[in-house]
Amino acid sequence: MSKPFNLSRRGLMRGVPTAALITGCKTAGDTTDPGTAAVVTDATQPGEIGPDPVPVRFSLNGKEVEAAVEPRTTLLEALRIDLDTTGPKVVCDRGACSACTVLVDGVQRNACMMLAHDVAGREVTTVEGLANGNELSALQKAFVEHDALQCGFCTSGMLMTATALLRRSKGKSLSKAEVNDAISGNLCRCGTYPHVVAAVLSAHNKEQA
């Protein structure tokens, strides 16, 4: 007389290769093709994305761009790797040095601390967007005139922080102490802080003239 067949969950896991079981449980969403996935164009709209790359669209230095990136991809990674915009530097990669500073809708942000999909539909400005063609901005010229750049790793972040400061201070007075306070989060290994302050004040004074 044969024994009744009883299949337990443990027996199933022992008898069926795990990889085959997992494969059978996969959903259509696990194989999303970046070319067919809906483009994320508004970071304020709720929704689920990933885990595969999903296209995100935003404005970069005045031009609309699009990149297919995983939800975990930081803005810094998307800019440098996917969009070949290498002005923002990878130094600490943890929001401590501000070498990756960019402007998001005019507000300075550390690109390494933002996800790429968080800027969908927004305006991102990097150091590449400060010049007008081959003509440097007044601030960039002041950096050159006052020798405010040496190794260059902090320079782009300093320029973006200073740009945000000058925009906030337009039509107002600006003191040395205010500049020092504004750039206090931008770390410079070469110690060019006095030159940076002089450059920022020079650009501000010329702008006010």
Give short descriptive properties of this protein.
alpha+beta; DNA polymerase, domain 1; 2 domains; five-stranded mixed sheet
| Count of individual beta strands | 5
At the first level of CATH, the class of the largest domain is Alpha Beta
What separation lies between the terminal Cα atoms?
A: 104 Å
How much of the residues is beta strand, in percent? 5-15%
CATH superfamily of the largest domain: Beta-grasp domain
Sheet having the most strands: 5 strands, mixed
The fold-level CATH name of the largest domain is Ubiquitin-like (UB roll)
What is the 3D shape?
elongated
In short:
The chain has 209 residues and is of the alpha+beta class. 33% of the residues lie in helices and 12% in strands.
